Amino acid sequence: xxxxxxxxxxxxxxxxxxxxxxxxxxxxxxxxxxxxxxxxxxxxxxxxxxxxxxxxxxxxxxxxxxxxxxxxxxxxxxxxxxxxxxxxxxxxxxxxxxxxxxxxxxxxxxxxxxxxxxxxxxxxxxxxxxxxxxxxxxxxxxxxxxxxxxxxxxxxxxxxxxxxxxxxxxxxxxxxxxxxxxxxxxxxxxxxxxxxxxxxxxxxxxxxxxxxxxxxxxxxxxxxxxxxxxxxxxxxxxxxxxxxxxxxxxxxxxxxxxxxxxxxxxxxxxxxxxxxxxxxxxxxxxxxxxxxxxxxxxxxxxxxxxxxxxxxxxxxxxxxxxxxxxxxxxxxxxxxxxxxxxxxxxxxxxxxxxxxxxxxxxxxxxxxxxxxxxxxxxxxxxxxxxxxxxxxxxxxxxxxxxxxxxxxxxxxxxxxxxxxxxxxxxxxxxxxxxxxxxxxxxxxxxxxxxxxxxxxxxxxxxxxxxxxxxxxxxxxxxxxxxxxxxxxxxxxxxxxxxxxxxxxxxxxxxxxxxxxxxxxxxxxxxxxxxxxxxxxxxxxxxxxxxxxxxxxxxxxxxxxxxxxxxxxxxxxxxxxxxxx
Length: 580
Known about the structure:
This protein is mostly helical. The protein has helices at residues 2-22, 70-73, 86-89, 116-121, 136-139, 155-165, 171-174, 229-238, 270-275, 313-319, 330-336, 364-367, 379-389, 395-398, 431-434, 440-443, 454-464, 495-498, 537-543, 554-560.
């Protein structure tokens, strides 16, 4: 009996031991022996025998984590439920404004950030210049609440108030770029002075000024022109050798001068490009001063050829006796010899713009008022005034091309003219195409108010037509509803759709002419039913004795039988047939 009790005791202990490992409070898969942390004293952690090494896990303990109580992270005895990410244990005091990676700024040693600037340098907005010493809250307005919402990284994102509040110059009215870096340096601690990027107008040589007020008078930084004449017009007007104003020399000082102080050295090499080659060609090196050719120092537009060259008029007259329009003047010499070479005289008809029509007798200066180089060949370059002032038709309002050659030749008076784009406004086809070249037949000299409806031109035909009489029958004035543009006949009239079915139904093929029904040729609104059909009044009266409002006339027939059929709700007499 004692032996049996011992067996039962051993069996119970075995089952109890098996139960302990099966129902471990640390969860399935936890295979650390119990005696690493516990002893026979109880299930509480026995620090005298505790030998578990946390550094062998996926989360080694360093810094403040070494002294942190186990239950702070392991709120459950199932150790595998404890996460290894910072956010698993630590509340995001930044409200997700800087991302979930705490280790970007913090270490397990302390929450204090030792190198916030270094961290910022690795961001999308490195801190340079005044930004390096700026207070965080200057940009991050909610920094006191530990919120660091992402900010824009353009200057305007933070400095919009500075941009809009600046009045000298007024950035908004002037339409300045909102990219502050185009004018201001990020490394500068002020918006003005040497920290201002003046590269849009380099301050070099004579412009290397230290006093901004020399150009920006009265502190005005708005709409200051970069054109030379805006500052140097007095110098231009006071110059007499040569006299810039009288000679109409361009006010673009840079054409001849550099930015060197004193305006010297200067040269007018645009003589070769715009006027006459004196620095190249046969005249290179043959003159000493401008006065050699420009004998009037008060007017550099005046020049002489014949005073300088050993030519006598009689000799020149003989050499040019076959040259149309030849005169013995310096201007004439220049017009035909623009390069100064006697063997390279100019023949306009061999150029890219042969002279034809009215251009043949046009004075050269009418087209070449600004010189002979670069003269445009487009019609509008000379004739834009003609284009804008023409009112019959108004070219501008109609959006016509300013390429005059589309419609006109070079003949005087702009006539005759063609209008190849007529179909863009009114399609010419059929009979209209045959008179396309006879503009007056429709326009009669007026190209502004010409109607584009049929009746606008053909009202006379409409009124004079008697078979049928369109006007008295009140036909539509839209001729195209019956006629084509090719001819008036054959024509169509939708009698079935608009009025009474005579091309379909029981009346199809039962009539020969319109007068079979329309007995009054002067009024097609009058028609007859009872004259054509074999009905006598007495019989019809009997058949319609039960029809309210019945009367024996054609209008009544049509009102009750609009399709000409005796069937339907309103029944016509059974002996309805055409008279023989």
